[in-house]
Amino acid sequence: MKIGMLTSGGDCQALNAAMRGVVKGLSHNVRDLEIYGFFDGYKGLIYGNYRLLTSSDFSGILTRGGTILGSSRQPFKLMKVPDENGLDKVQAMKSNYYKLNLDCLVILGGNGTQKTANLLREEGLNIIHLPKTIDNDIYGTDVTFGFYSAINIATDVIDCIHTTAASHNRVFIVEVMGHKVGWLTLYSGVASGADIILLPEIPYSPKSILKAIKAREEAGKGFTILAVAEGAISKEDSKLSKKELAKKLAKESHPTVSYKLANMITKETGIECRVTVPGHMQRGGSPCPYDRVLCSRLGSAAAGAIMEKKYGNMVAMVNGSTKLVPLEKVAGKLKTVDPKGQMVEEAKRMGISFGD
Ligand code: F6P
Q1: pLDDT over 90 at 168, yes or no
Q2: Residues 11, 40, 135, 195: which is the catalytic one?
Q3: CB of 291 within 8 A of CB of 63?
Q4: For residue 117, what pLDDT is reported?
Q5: Which of 111, 133, 177, when mutated, tests ligand 1's pocket best, judged by the most ligand atoms within 8 Å of its CB?
Q6: Is 297 within the bounds of a domain?
Q7: Which pLDDT tens digit goes with each residue over 79-96?
Q8: pLDDT confidence band for 347 (50 / 70 / 90)
Q9: Which residue's alpha carbon is at the smallest distance from atom 15 of ligand 1?
Q10: Hey, which of 14, 76, 224, 286 would disulfide with 115, CB 3.0 to 4.6 Å?
């Protein structure tokens, strides 16, 4: 059996753990196994940059962050656009797949990666996709690997801010990754006891934020902590078209939404405000135990699907069970936080403000 494997898009802590799960699941059950690792995501598949790996390459990597194959961003919308030398990328990927006579290509990645995986499936390749991203925004799976490891890091950051915030009468903002969705901010915000949580799915009003800060002041609390998603947006801005918003943001001098909020808070309340942006730290380090288990299960389930030739699927986790979900049903869809969902309602009941 000949398997190709690649990791694409932004990395996360548990990519190696997931690849190890696939390879262990196959190598214990398939006699003549060849694994071709493509380097730097789809780039390796397009330009034929690969190496024949053995199962020992995947040994000892359960706890190692990053990806032994490297990764890169190859936007889906550019996949059908020839490269600077006129190379047809889709044809190039197909031709490398057929040249190596692969039985299947295992693709680990997030939303954009999944769209290209589905495109390759439509082109006739045998594909298995594994859902990776700290953003947890892949439709059709309850959880993606990387998410819980990133929650741990973002929570640690907010915990550290908590102790210093308690020493000063200040407002602190921690900006959490998550692209266009608020899962990571919601979970790390609740886990760390943030006072205000701002998510892209719940556009904020500056007035409500100020009201929440004032209420804490009046209650004798010396500080306020905001967990702000990098994609958080005001009610006013959420009404603009993509184009109008881009035009407006280009005129603003704030590097991110958190700095804009900090300026507004200090201007309106006179309280000093500090911003912390942990950024790519949230994708770094070792996968947490939850992710190690998740990746071992998803990886082993992927191996099972490959042995049964059940291609064209994402290996998902649904209600605690691994499940094969057809790529055509999920590619291009986003899983967002439900503003009226239980977790938001429960957080609100505990007095957490969502700035709405
Ligand atoms: O998708 C994962 C993610 O870390 C997002 O949370 C973030 O918006 C983005 O990637 C950052 O991308 P890059 O690594 O290309 O800066």
Answers
A1: no
A2: 135
A3: no
A4: 98
A5: 177
A6: yes
A7: 999 999 999 999 999 999
A8: very high
A9: 10
A10: 76
